[in-house]
Amino acid sequence: MLSQEENDLLTRVGPGMPMGTLMRQYWVPALLSSELPEPDSPPLRVLLLGEKLIAFRGTDGRVGLLEHACPHRGASLFFGRNEQCGLRCVYHGWKFDVTGTCVDMPNEPAESTFKDKVRARAYPCTERGGIIWAYLGPRTEPPPLPDLEANMLPDGEWLVMASQQECNWLQITEGDIDTSHFGFLHRGSIRPEDMPPWTSKSELYVVRDRAPHYQVIDTDIGTMYGAYVDAEPGERNWRIALFLLPFYTKPPGGGPGLFARVPMDDEHTMVYRMGIRGARALVPPEAANDPAFARVKSGLLPNTSDWYGRSRFGSNPRNDFEIDRAMQRANRGNNGYTGIVGNMQDQAMTEGMGPRYDRSQEHLGTSDSMIIRTRRRLSGAVRALVEKGVTPPGVDAPELYRVRSAQAVLPAEADWIEATRDVREVFVRQITT
Asked: In what order do the strands lie in the sheet with 131-135?
């Protein structure tokens, strides 16, 4: 368990908070490029690391991210006019470009130079792979973007999706790096002898033995676990996953895909899933039509314009994630253990903990070794920055993000790190079974 002080250190992300200070050293996914579809499109409210911001795409296509309060009298720039490469506050007409420079102050005398003395707080933005990235840190010249493979694919190959979760970023992240829950939350109703014919060998082994053995290490950019169960005689089935500072996870399975668990504030998180188009389905179409194997019950709700109105699922805490108790009693398929459909199973667990879980109440076991290691890695990086001014790992070394997760059946005596080094290589085509 963690002390309340340590829990606050890891979970509070607003301005001035140590974890928020750490995250601001990096480029941060702020929104999807598709959310600002064209030049001079309507401005958008964006809540990011506890700050209320307004995003807009100027006439020239560049993206601006400004503090929402006009520096004149505090009126919200959300109501502003997006015109001629700037956002104009409709209260008194002050206009700001994407850098926050005041380019027009029409309610001041023509000879006034006051506009040259006023700026709106603005954050640099850049776009890559369908994501608008923002830098909220202290540097005049931002660091390079991280070399995230899924965010560097050619046009037509990358895939990016966003969804909001109503809880703190860390409890979602810790769910990603907890492999033992897979055999219960997602496959608890399935016996090994009843595995569907499309099931992979790896999944069969996980269902056959739901108590994996962990080996956990620090990496240059975060942490990595190898969790194994016995496969065929003399073999082990390994699931290898990574946490990458400050909020990325790569679940077992390999490939370029990853999640970014980006805090909106202490109690809300925007999740960005980056991957590759054309990835094979987990189950064939005929099984996907069976509710016991479905992956989605309700999709995303229509966006609204409020601070929490973007990318929300129809399954949510207000309808108990549409839990189906009859399905749970039937206890079959991928959804029968919980009665909750597919993608919402994890979300129900992490949001059900409350908006920001008090970790002083938990009791961790050996299956939580990756979570324990990752917390230590995070707190170490935060304290090194705040107390000694040490730049966090990866800020100035984008190549450290050139890593993949993996899944492999290896001889029992094999060194899992060395044996999977090739399949964890980035920017290569690989086929997994």
From this structure: 27-32, 131-135, 125-128
Which sign does the torsion angle of CA 302, 303, 304, 306 carry? positive
Nearest to 350 by CA among 167, 222, 92: 167
Specify the CATH number of the domain 150-419.
3.90.380
Tokens of 146: 């991280």
What's 161's DSSP letter?
A: E
This prediction's pTM:
0.94
Residue among 412, 420, 368, 370 at smallest CA distance from 230: 412
Angle 360-365-369 from CA coordinates, rounded to 5°: 95
pLDDT-derived band at 283, boundaries 50, 70, 90: low
Residue pair 227/238 in contact by the 8 Å Cβ criterion: yes
Contact of 49 with 136, CB cutoff 8 Å: yes
Identify the CA nearest to 129 among candidates 107, 111, 147: 147
Owner of token pair 């500072």: 245
Query: In which residue ranges of the chain is CATH 2.102.10.10 found?
Result: 27-142
422: Cβ contacts below 8 Å, ≥ 6 apart: none
pLDDT at 286: 61
Delimit the CATH 3.90.380 region(s) of the chain: 150-419
Containing 344, the helix (H) or strand (E) segment is: helix 344-352
Give the DSSP letter of residue 186: I
Distances (CA, A) of 325 to 96, 189, 330: 54, 14, 9
27-142 under CATH 2.60.120.430, yes or no? no
pLDDT-wise least confident of 138-142, 275-279, 368-372: 275-279
Instruction: Inform me whether the pLDDT recorded for 428 exceeds 80.
Output: no
Per residue in 329-345, pLDDT tens?
999 988 999 999 998 99
Q: What is the pLDDT of residue 215?
A: 96
Element (H, E) at 418: helix 416-419
